[in-house]
Amino acid sequence: MSNIKLGTLNNGCTYCLSHKVHIRGDGRRAYYRIRIKGKRYYLHRYLWEQKFGEIPKGKILMHTCDNVLCVNIDHLIPGTHKENMADMKSKGRTRNGYSKK
Predict the structure, then answer these.
(1) By C-alpha distance, which of 8, 32, 30 is closest to 20?
(2) Cα–chain-centroid distance for residue 25?
């Protein structure tokens, strides 16, 4: 993990300075991806699992900061996809990340 360089902003969000953000086929940004021993990982999931162990079955990691590029494990909590969608709706966020407000 020594080749992963992170930086933290005043709001506590942590970003990866050493790896590029994966761009989806539709051109939207996704997550940082890393490769360790030939296996690909999403960086936020990898860092979370290093501290807390495997993500519980049926769960995803929700960003409490609402910043998908944040890899601060203190900003990540396990939840279901349904919980994540309810959280998104309650905060007025759309699929593309912009508020409807």
Answers:
(1) 32
(2) 18
What is the rounded CA–CA span in Å between residue 28 and residue 14? 20
**For residue 50, is pLDDT > 80?**
yes
Enumerate the domain spans of the chain. 6-90
User: Distance between CA atoms of 4 and 53, rounded to whole angstroms?
Assistant: 19
Number of neighbours of residue 92 by Cβ within 10 angstroms: 10
Task: Kindly state the tokens that stand for 50.
Answer: 């290093």
- pTM, rounded to two decimals: 0.81
For 8-32, write each residue's pLDDT tens digit. 999 999 999 999 888 877 777 788 9
Concatenating the DSSP letter of every residue in 53-88 gives -SPPTT-EEEETTS-TT---GGGEEEE-HHHHHHHH
Give the CB-side neighbour count of residue 1, counting CA atoms within 13 A: 11
Quick one: CATH architecture of 6-90? Alpha-Beta Complex (3.90)
Q: Up-side HSE of residue 96: CA atoms within 13 Å toward CB?
A: 5
